[in-house]
Amino acid sequence: MIFTQHYLACLSHASYLIGDESTGRAVVVDPRRDIGVYLEEADARGLRIERVIETHLHADFLSGHLELADATGAVISFGEGAGLDFPTEPLSHGQRIELGEVALEIRATPGHTPESISVVVYEHADDAIPYGVLTGDTLFVGDVGRPDLLASGGAGYDAETLGRMLFRSLHDQILGLPDETRVFPAHGAGSSCGKQLSSETSSTIGAQRRTNYALQPMTEAQFVAAVTEGQPAMPAYFTFDAQRNREERGLLDESVAPPGMGLAAVLRQIADGAIALDTREPPDFAAGHLRGAINVGLQGRFAEWAGNVLDPSDGLVLVGDPTAALESRVRLARIGFDRVIGSLSDPRELFLDRPDLVEVSSRLTVEQLATTLGVEDDIQLIDVRNPGETAEGTLLGAQAIPLAVLVDSLDTLQRDAPVVVSCASGYRSLIAASVLRRVGFADVSDLIGGYEAWMAAGLPVTEGEASSR
């Protein structure tokens, strides 16, 4: 058997290629949209990808089922009831797919979404103990799939109903597998699909039975309360991606970079409503950038944070490092943000020829902020971390506004009063600060080093979560 986990750290996303060496038949489970990694592996190993299996309708990324089907002729399969706009071969509970010696068993595991399935993998069809189980977003290492995302998306399901379905799926379909069975989830630490996912990308049923908080003895009601409390705010693009994954759509060509543009053309696009996106790292952006540009550093959780503050209908012009234009386009495409109009070919044209269009960011050290707070009482402190983070404490007097809901919370802030934004370490805070400056907040700074630096300096914090918006 060939079994490969492809882990995409920037989205905390795991996909899988499973092949039978005796027949060359293979499937891919939960593929990302840039499918080159699967095609290259299949070619190197002499495999034919004949089926794409989605464990559920993903909300946190745009899946590559259409790209793979187009490239290989593979059949696309979801669990029953997915409600799709393209041809598929649905998979039913108990169905077995034999690739040769390797066999897959489908188990319906609704809860995170109604159509969720898990895929039990047998290295040999008659093995008593499965090699592993691909659990999608039903079971993670250290956590389980949150049942409130679909409810938040207005799909007609409430979190309690889905939570009770999830409880039964876990206990009836997953925990009945032998302890030795390996667990391969669709996500790891950092994903907004759960609140305390482990950095480990695989485990076993036995280990999860012992250590996963959500699998300890409790009633259905207790389970629902435990798994819905303290979840991160749903990123704004999740509803869009969940719908796009149902639809026919354009295919991604991951080899094509955005067209290069001169500064005059970039400025014309911006005048017509496009947004300037600078993907350089925070210190470089802060030192000087095109006025009004939004900063989302490419080296972090770029696509997720971009999806929090941008809209998929926005036309985007890249104005940072031109050598990163192709990577930026592909990573935006992973969440379905396809409207990248072009990229500034030569940033020197901005800095040398039009210095009047360049601005620097105001960034404060913890010492500077502490001093400023001592003499100014009208500063609005904003903490853009998620609820699970701010529950540990915030700067004294800060308002908790997660980055995922910042754009929808602008009316709660005073535009004529100074704003200081903090996060964990200074990455998300500069994203938020650039958004606020773009929409007209005149006096905006962010805290270098964030809450971690503030705590390290021994400065006062709240005990527990700050006031929320």
Structure overview:
Strand 7 (103-108) and strand 8 (117-122) form a beta hairpin. A 6-stranded mixed sheet has the order 6-7-8-9-10-11. Strands 19-23-22-20-21-24 form a 6-stranded parallel sheet. The protein is globular, with a radius of gyration of 23 Å. Helix content is 29%, strand content 20%. 48% of the residues are buried. The protein folds into 3 domains: 2-244, Ribonuclease Z/Hydroxyacylglutathione hydrolase-like (Metallo-beta-lactamase, Chain A, 4-Layer Sandwich), CATH 3.60.15.10; 260-359, 3-Layer(aba) Sandwich (Oxidized Rhodanese, domain 1), CATH 3.40.250; 362-468, 3-Layer(aba) Sandwich (Oxidized Rhodanese, domain 1). It has 469 residues and is of the alpha/beta class.
Alpha carbon gyration radius: 23 Å
Secondary-structure class: alpha/beta
Low-confidence stretches: none
CATH topology of the largest domain: Metallo-beta-lactamase, Chain A
Quote the beta fraction.
Answer: 15-25%
Helix content range of the residues, please?
25-40%
Give the second-level CATH assignment, the architecture of the largest domain. Answer: 4-Layer Sandwich
Oligomer: single chain
Q: Top keywords for this entry?
A:
Metallo-beta-lactamase, Chain A, 17 helices, 469 residues, six-stranded mixed β-sheet, alpha/beta, single chain, Oxidized Rhodanese, domain 1, six-stranded parallel β-sheet
